[in-house]
Amino acid sequence: MTKSTTLGIDHLGLSVKDLEASKAFFENALGWTQFGGNPDYPSVYITDGTSKITLWQCKGDALNEFDRHKNVGLHHLALKVPTAEALRAVFETVRSWPGVKIEFAPELSGNGPKEHFMIYEPGGTRLEVSFDPR
Questions:
Q1: What Cα–Cα distance (Å) separates residue 83 from each residue in 86, 87, 88, 117?
Q2: d(C-alpha 131, C-alpha 134), whole Å
Q3: What is the pLDDT of residue 49?
Q4: pLDDT tens per residue, range 49-70
Q5: Helix, strand, or coil here: 27?
Q6: Omega within 30 of 0 (cis) for the link into 113
Q7: Comparing C-alpha atoms, which of 108, 117, 32, 114 is closest to residue 78?
Q8: The whole model's pTM is what?
C-alpha cells in the first residue's frame, strides 16, 4: 500500500444560498466561530476548533437547490458529537431553527450502535450529525 501524501482535510468549502443565515446557523445553533472571510467574494470562514468550513455566497437569482442524486460533488457534510445526549441536544436546537428542513430525527444508522440525524441547514446544504460510541 502506498503511503498517503495528504494530511486530511484542510477545510471544506460550501456554496450557500444565504450566507448570513448559514453563518448564523453555524455560529448560534452549533457554536462555531468565525475566523475570517472575504467580502469581495462574499465568504465566511468558520471553525469548531477542529474542523474548518468556508461558506461562499451563491450568486444570481436562479439557484439550483441541493440534490444529492443529481449533482456531482457533495452528498452531505457529516459532523460528529461526543455523546448521545449531545446528539439529542443539537437536534433540539436545530429542529426549529429558521430555515432548517428536517430530513429525519435521531435514529440508529443501520443496525447501530451509531446514531445520527439529517437536516438541511438554512443555506441549503444537507447536514448529518452523528454519535458513534465505538
A1: 5, 6, 9, 14
A2: 9
A3: 96
A4: 999 999 999 988 877 888 888 8
A5: helix
A6: yes
A7: 117
A8: 0.89
